Amino acid sequence: MNLTRRQMLCASVGAAAAGVFGFSLSASATPEATAESIKNFAGGKEPAMGGDLTLTTPEIAENGNTVPIEVSVASPMTDDDYVESVVIYAEGNPNPDVAVFHFTPMSGAAEAKTRMRLAKTQNVVAVAKTSKGQVFMDKKEVKVTIGGCGG
Amino acid sequence: MDNIKPRVKVPKSASAGEIITIKTLINHPMESGLRKGKDGNLIPRQIINKFTCEFNGKPVFSCELEPAISANPYIEFSAKVNEAGTFKFSWLDDDGSVYETENKIAIK
Amino acid sequence: MRNQIIAKAAAVAMTALVPGIAFAGGPVDEELVIDGEIQMITRAAPPEGHPLDEVLSGWLYRTEETRLLETDTFENPGMLEVQDGADLWNTVDGSAGKSCASCHGDAEESMAGVGASFPKWDEASNRPINVELQINKCRTEEMGAEAYKFDAPEQKALTAYVKHQSLGTPVAIDLAEGHMQSWWEKGNELYYTRTGQLNLSCASCHEQNNGNYIRADHLSQGNVNGFPTYRLKQASLVSLHNRFRGCIRDTRAEFPAAFSDELMALEVYVTWRGTGLSVETPAVRQ
Fold first, then answer.
1. Does the beta-carbon distance from C213 to A148 stay under 8 Å?
2. Which other chains touch chain C, taking contact as 3+ CB pairs less than 8 Å apart?
3. Which residues cross the membrane (chain B) (predicted)?
4. Does ipTM top 0.90?
5. How far apart are CA A47 and CA C240, in angstroms?
6. Is the pLDDT confidence value at C5 over 80?
7. Catalytic residue positions of C?
């Protein structure tokens, strides 16, 4: 790299000041607030980690404004055994709530994809609830990079 | 909001009982309410807060969205198709606007 | 001041983080196929006199998630604005009661491959003309409509729609037309001229350091075959001259006006540097 450390620092101050993130970085939620929301969603049940629920996120997001995420729950999706809902939280965003997906047996598969905003490097958490009252959880850390170049 | 155009991708046909993938994209700023404008004041929140998909009048999939969803919301999900019919999609805006579109599907 | 301190702290943290980042430097060895059928050229043999051994698309420098967004014209969020451009193409505007389609018919036929050969020489104005200025020329001279202002949403959408009709076509501009060669030479000189408080030229990043990181940003060769480009950061299409100005601003220099002689010369030269790459409009970048 031919750029000096000082040049990189200078470039970065300019870039960060010109940032157009969807969020201000001043306030953020906490893992505790997220845990509280999960408790409400799960009706007091302790979610089983992993297992039938898979949350897929990039390890590194090139820009926190558009981070693709995917949830998938292994389920027969029949009238008496299906995934009712999957909730997504971002522990370090100004507000941890991201989205709630509601499925029906007509969904065929409990799978959904969307694109989300992450204010900084943090854990993304997904919790699924089935019609039989089972609760699953998955958690992934996403590193959010702050680019050197605005524009 | 004006000039909001939903886009949906649904196969034209499916075998009975087939699980298909549905992709949706809509142009919307998803203004988070946490961002400051050029004048230094917060820009008021305006997002799409709910999306629903029905097939022949029955619920298939829905979701509630928060300001943490990216601009131009993209939502992809599945549907099991047992009969020919019509998918109806709707997006609900904070300002009360509803953006709707429909797609028909045939059985192979 | 507080912002600067925070930004500096973040910068130090990020600089420390960079060596730990899992993905390797340099371009990836992947093929770009759009909608499973359009085979895109992302690596091309350089034209004569090109300083690099291989011409590479910026797509090869992005992470897998960003790359995937460009492989499907439905999932590509830039296509929303391209669709707006399609509507504008068919919309009558101005005193002559014409739309683009009144003269040019179906853009999928009349504009196929056209965007890959811009900028071109414009005899009337005695300077190169790009797609944005060609649209304005049509609007003022043929339609009796007002020229679009720089970066008006209509200008970005219609430019992207026209260029999208060349999706997959290799970039090839004709330097033998008019005085294109002398504009190429001026652009060449600007490309290597260091500017701003950081004393950087285009070449400092995009020729000498492509494949390296500037903080967390993975530098590409700076080819322009995907413009207007959808940037995740702005969550909208970004025009080429907007990007030029952003780069120059990042060197902490005063930046020239859009469509000025300086930036038109740079567009001629930088477009030539990407000769042989497929037009990717709307490309998706970070």
1. yes
2. A, B
3. none
4. yes
5. 49
6. no
7. 247
